[in-house]
């Protein structure tokens, strides 16, 4: 019978594995918005999102409501890494009956304790200063918290049952009571559970502590969860401490098969039968009771105490936790067991003593094992959700079971190791209970609030309001009109260049076309075959040696013709004469579709005799010199136009081209009657806006921030391309870097120590923004490589803040781009006299294509700014190849149609 009893109290490992799984399931259920109401493990958000970093300083008051005491504590922190906080405390006994009386009386009493404590402890110089005194309130009951300083009591427990408190905000109740005591400088800034206080207490030295277990009269655990997983709270970035309330685990029946008949008796005799089933197997309030019921049952079965009267055991509570511990902790001999049982009025035999000891060990051992199982569930969950291979974490522990039972620690570690081998917890004993931690929570809350104010101050100028964006849109519209006007064109910052492209593809284009792409990353020659079944392409990349780039124009264009001949030979295209579209990505003044004067070379080209010349003619001259008749130059094409055309082939509504890559630019189909710079009023013409230069006349000065000014000053073209410098890939990383430097200087980041690397110009690449912003809720992991590259020592909070900076900069870029586009689509809609415009934008550029939020933000803002336009975005493939060929194809089609 003894063996059977002991077996029922020991849970096999495979059953523990299953239990761990159930615990994780219930945790997920508790965190999810849809299911949290049904979850037994409540997973309550605490709104504690940071652990101490050692810079906290000042005086902090704590008041802690305990079983039958009120504890007050004053902690002084020196911002010295919290190595030597000064602490003063006082404990007040609660008057008889107050825990069952009116709520107001309870809170008045707590406030009186605070008042008396302050009167006795605060020395005159602290009193003199009019400083406010923040207070943290440790309230060890289940609350629905909606802010750090807002928490409704859900239910009393632990023998408390004051009227008029359930459903009320207990922070408010305490603050009112304190105000009645005329302690107007005391602000209740944080409320927390004792478990959370323990976690924070253990966070004081060295590494942060991210899990805490309280193994006391009751049992509970809290840990730092990824905030985005805590769906019941609005916080989405960083981490938040979650109060698991795991005592209720099993209330849905999942633990039924491991309950022993003794557990059933304990539960039935409790004041809340059927509830807190897990807690009743592991809480020290219940362990003596479990033993008592086991002894009663075994006596009935005549396995122990045969022939003695055990009537004393019938009384609830006679067998205390202390009795259990005294018996368990005596490894040698049974003298202590005899003493304990004697003191209860039992007359045990030697054999009885041995058996009672075995039962006690089994009950306490099981409690430790179950704690370990719960811990394993928490650790595995943390490891999984942080996407780590191994989790190293500090676990704060406190409570009677932990301090009173020396093997607790060993069992907790070894069993959790078996169940979660991927996790390496380090246990930290909490010496000062939860009070010191509560002071830390309070201190951290104030530090975080101050940090937030300063961060908002730095980022504020980068945040654009709807009115700001409307103004940008209106200014863009104004500049567009000026650029189109014959007289005003010269002074417009948006040049609105005519492209002489007057049609987009209609799908009837057929034939083989050549395309040249000069001025992008590579020099390419392509053949584009447009058939009924679609478009196929072949291309080759050619090298232009530096000597040729910087030699004579003749040599350069001869070289280009050589490449074309080589390509046509390889492609077996020598016998036919093919129309050619030429993407020439240098600033030109276009005077016809096939006539464009080079304004200046850029990107390392400096071939002589070209500036001021018609580049199409230069190419034709070279063809003549080389006697090459296999091609006919039809069009010179800007890459924005190519982008529009390549998408226009698939979607006839595509009448806008947009590029957001190294730079940014846009083009669109404008009515000829509005184009004052070209003769004729019939039909439309594509206008290359060159919108990157928007603002170069000072019209955007009001939105430039100090960061933008620094970035502009360090470019090769200060004061030029001002709009582009707010938006495109070449600059976003650099803007972020400037902000990070300023934040570091203000001690908001990296503990005020920037790495020398971060001070290097352009070291922060725009693609970093994509990586950093992609990390949903898990910034640290994805950012590791970047931080390494920049030699940065970043805390978790640093990472969260870096992400916010990136988000702010990329959001502004997308919004500005949208404001520009809104001006374009609204103008097109008005041009056409439509209430509603449906139009497609062909887009190219790596920033647009690869940044995780840019396109969404752009589209959302555009919808908002131009609600009457239904705008679709289509990604362009190879605008400078396929697009250029299509310009030639459309021009050939139009020419054929005219004949
Ligand atoms: P271009 O505009 O010269 O034709 P791209 O369209 O490829 O070239 O754009 C290049 C720009 O895209 C670079 O300035 C670079 O900073 C940026 N970029 C590259 N990768 C990414 C990425 N993953 N996310 C955001 N921007 C990127
Ligand atoms: Mg490009």
UniProtKB/TrEMBL annotation:
PROSITE patterns: HEXOKINASE_1, HEXOKINASE_2. Gene3D superfamilies: 3.30.420.40, 3.40.367.20. GO terms for molecular function: ATP binding; D-glucose binding; fructokinase activity; glucokinase activity; mannokinase activity. GO terms for cellular component: cytosol; mitochondrion. Residues 211-444, 655-890 form the Hexokinase C-terminal domain. It holds the Pfam family Hexokinase_2. Residues 2-203, 455-649 form the Hexokinase N-terminal domain. It catalyses: a D-hexose + ATP = a D-hexose 6-phosphate + ADP + H(+); D-glucose + ATP = D-glucose 6-phosphate + ADP + H(+). The keyword Transferase applies. Coiled coil: none annotated. Its EC number is 2.7.1.1. It is an enzyme of class 2 (transferase). One of its GO terms (biological process) is glucose metabolic process. Pathway: Carbohydrate degradation; glycolysis; D-glyceraldehyde 3-phosphate and glycerone phosphate from D-glucose: step 1/4; Carbohydrate metabolism; hexose metabolism. Keywords: ATP-binding, Glycolysis, Kinase, Nucleotide-binding, Transferase. PANTHER family: HEXOKINASE, HEXOKINASE-3. Belongs to the hexokinase family. This is hexokinase.
């Amino acid at each position: 019978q003894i063996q059977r009893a002991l077996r029922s109290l020991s849970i096999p490992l495979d059953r523990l594995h299953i239990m761990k799984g159930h615990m994780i399931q219930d945790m997920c259920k508790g965190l999810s918005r849809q299911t949290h109401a049904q979850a037994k493990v409540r997973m309550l958000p605490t709104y504690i999102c940071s652990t101490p970093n050692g810079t906290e300083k000042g005086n902090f008051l704590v008041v802690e409501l305990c079983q039958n005491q009120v504890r007050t504590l004053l902690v002084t922190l020196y911002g010295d890494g919290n190595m030597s906080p000064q602490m003063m405390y006082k404990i007040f006994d609660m008057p008889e009956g107050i825990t069952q009386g009116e709520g107001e009386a309870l809170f008045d009493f707590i406030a009186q304790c605070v008042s008396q404590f302050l009167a006795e402890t605060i020395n005159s110089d602290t009193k003199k200063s009019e400083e406010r005194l923040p207070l943290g309130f440790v309230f060890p009951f289940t609350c629905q918290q909606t802010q750090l300083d807002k928490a409704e009591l859900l239910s009393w427990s632990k023998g408390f049952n004051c009227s008029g408190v359930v459903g009320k905000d207990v922070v408010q109740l305490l603050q009112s009571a304190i105000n009645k005591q005329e302690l107007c400088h005391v602000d209740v800034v944080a409320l927390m559970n004792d478990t959370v206080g323990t976690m924070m207490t253990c966070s004081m030295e060295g590494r942060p502590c991210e899990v805490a277990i309280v193994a006391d009269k009751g049992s509970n655990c809290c840990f730092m969860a990824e905030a985005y997983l805590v769906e019941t709270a609005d916080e989405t970035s960083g981490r938040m401490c979650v109060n698991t309330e795991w005592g209720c685990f099993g209330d849905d029946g999942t633990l039924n098969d491991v309950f022993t008949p003794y557990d059933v008796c304990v539960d039935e005799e409790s004041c809340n039968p059927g509830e807190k089933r897990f807690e009743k197997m592991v809480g020290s309030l219940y362990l003596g009771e479990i033993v008592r019921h086991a002894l009663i049952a075994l006596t009935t079965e005549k396995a122990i105490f045969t022939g003695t009267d055990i009537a004393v055991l019938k009384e609830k509570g006679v067998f205390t936790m202390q009795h259990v511990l005294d018996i368990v902790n005596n490894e040698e001999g049974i003298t202590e067991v005899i003493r304990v049982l004697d003191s209860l009025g039992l007359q045990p035999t030697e054999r009885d003593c041995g058996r009672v000891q075995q039962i006690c060990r089994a009950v306490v051992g099981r409690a430790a094992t179950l704690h370990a199982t719960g811990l394993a569930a928490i650790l595995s969950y943390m490891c999984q959700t942080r996407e780590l291979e191994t989790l190293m974490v500090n676990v704060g522990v406190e409570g009677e079971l932990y301090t009173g039972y020396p093997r607790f620690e060993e069992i907790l570690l070894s069993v959790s190791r078996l169940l979660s081998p991927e996790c390496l917890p380090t246990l930290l004993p909490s010496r000062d209970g939860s009070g010191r931690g509560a002071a830390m929570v309070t201190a951290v809350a104030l530090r975080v609030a101050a940090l937030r104010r300063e961060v908002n101050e730095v980022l504020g100028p980068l945040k654009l309001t709807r009115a700001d964006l409307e103004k940008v849109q209106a200014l863009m519209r104004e500049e567009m009109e000026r650029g189109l006007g014959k007289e005003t064109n010269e002074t417009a910052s948006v040049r609105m260049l005519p492209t002489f492209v007057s049609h987009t593809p209609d799908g009837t284009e057929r034939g083989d076309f050549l395309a040249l792409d000069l001025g992008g990353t590579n020099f390419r020659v392509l053949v584009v075959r447009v058939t009924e079944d679609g478009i196929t392409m072949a291309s080759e990349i050619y090298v232009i040696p530096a000597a040729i780039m910087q030699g004579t124009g003749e040599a350069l264009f001869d070289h280009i013709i050589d490449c074309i001949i080589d390509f046509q030979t390889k492609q077996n295209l020598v016998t036919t004469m093919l129309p050619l579209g030429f993407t020439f990505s240098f600033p030109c003044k276009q005077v016809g579709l096939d006539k464009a004067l080079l304004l200046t070379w850029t990107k390392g080209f400096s071939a002589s005799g070209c500036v001021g010349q018609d580049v199409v003619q230069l190419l034709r001259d070279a063809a003549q010199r080389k006697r090459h008749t296999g091609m006919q130059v039809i069009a010179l094409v800007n890459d924005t136009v190519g982008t529009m055309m390549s998408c226009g082939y698939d979607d006839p509504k595509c009448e806008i081209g947009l590029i957001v890559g190294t730079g940014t630019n846009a083009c669109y189909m404008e009515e000829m009657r509005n184009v004052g710079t070209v003769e004729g009023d019939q039909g439309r013409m594509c206008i290359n806006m060159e919108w990157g230069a928007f603002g170069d006349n000072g019209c955007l000065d009001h939105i430039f921030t100090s960061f933008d000014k620094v970035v502009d000053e360090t470019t090769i073209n200060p004061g030029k391309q001002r709009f582009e410098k707010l938006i495109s890939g070449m600059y976003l990383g650099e803007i972020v870097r400037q902000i990070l430097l300023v934040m570091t200087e203000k001690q908001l980041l990296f503990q005020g120590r920037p790495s020398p690397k971060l001070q290097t110009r352009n070291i922060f690449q725009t693609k970093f923004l994509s990586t950093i912003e992609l990390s949903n809720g898990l910034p640290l992991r994805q950012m590791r490589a970047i931080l390494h590259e920049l030699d940065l020592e970043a805390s978790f909070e640093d990472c969260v803040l870096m992400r916010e900076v990136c988000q702010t900069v990329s959001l502004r870029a997308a919004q500005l781009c949208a404001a520009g586009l809104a001006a374009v689509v609204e103008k097109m809609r008005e041009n056409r006299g439509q209430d509603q415009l449906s139009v497609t934008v062909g887009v190219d550029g790596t920033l647009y294509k690869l940044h995780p939020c840019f396109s969404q933000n752009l589209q959302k803002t555009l919808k908002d700014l131009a609600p009457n336009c239904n705008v679709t975005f289509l990604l362009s493939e190879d605008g400078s190849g396929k697009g250029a060929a299509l310009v030639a194809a459309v021009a050939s089609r139009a020419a054929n149609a005219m004949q």
